[in-house]
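for the record, two folds in this file. i put them one after another cuz i was lazy. first one right below, seq on top, structure tokens after. the second one comes after a little note so u can tell where it starts
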Amino acid sequence: MTAYLHLFTLLLEALRAILMMAATLIIWCPEWEGNEGPHRMQVSCVEISRAYFHVRVEDHGQLYVDLPPEDEDFGKDFSGRLNVHMYSNRPAADGWHTECSGSMMEFGFMIGTSSSCVFYRPGAYLVCSVHGDDFTTVGPKSSLDKFVEDMKSKHELKEAARLGPGKGDDKETRVLNRVVRWTEQGLEYEADPRQAEKIIQELGLEDCKAVATPAVRQSMEHINKDEPIADHTI
């Protein structure tokens, strides 16, 4: 659990870095030319469909699974040998990361020195953060268009959003359960409201009344009646 939380923290920091780069584009991207030009700054959010199925098992050993009930050989002394990875297989995530890292390097990206989940493409001014099958990339529109086409040549995907300053650009999306908005004043970043709703539901607090301070407000009369707690020091 500690390792997972550490990795998730790194991914959130990478996401914040990408949004910061989108907000400070004039400093690091000399091709920026305004809010409507072909080189305007954007943030692309790409989702790979069935990512693990893009990775062949033969490159990482052999894996076997129980046959599903609908198979005619179910219940017999048979198992299924996988040609590609499936979700819930332990080696699947490592296999997919190896696959996507290879693809990114084919497209001219370099792997980050601080995190292997961050990639940079020199000359194209693209910086990409990868979390599983989610790719969040900042850079000029022209470079992002080329990157998405390169990705489509190798993987089945959909571009969930393309945030940007243009009139036709998306203005809001969700990344890593965070809400990201592109406004005229800058980029906004906040927790997904559904997470708070989920916590309230799990704790059974749907019918509770909201208060500014979650504690009992005591009167001076109650405070004056307080008695010292007995000393139980051992």
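(here's the note) second protein begins now
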Amino acid sequence: MAATTGWGNAPGVRVRPATVDDALVVADVYMRSWLAGYQGLVDPDELEAVASERAEHDWQRSLTDPASRLALGLIDGTPAGIAKVGPDSTEEVPGHWLDLLYVAPEFWGTGVASALLRWAVDQARATGATCLWLRVVEAQGRARRFYEREGWAYDAEVPPSQNAFFPLLCMRSDLI
């Protein structure tokens, strides 16, 4: 899908496909959001150790993965969030997944997360998907409330999983 302003309904919000040239920006938005999301939930020393590992992620490879789509959310032209849709990264559950949705903390509450979520749903629908899944950290109440407000429901049929720190809950959105 071409770059568009169609996924944003908040003033100044725009979502566009990310390119390889955006790799450093995507990495920066991801790390700032990830660190802010775990602040206060995880011991700072432990968080820093995992953050160092995550900082090494190969975003250029993620951006060229033919099985996935990654978008950059902008507010008045400033990178504010990212989203990625693709197959289940754990390879346990076939189907379409919102593999990540991260918004830099200074842009929380601006509407960019909702715009990125709409983009993800549109990407899944364009491939013929009838359902989109995601995993959310059980301890991150803010993220869980966001998805609930957006109409997502918990899916108890998907096997439980865990990230480096917490149990993950599976949520789904039926696209029909």
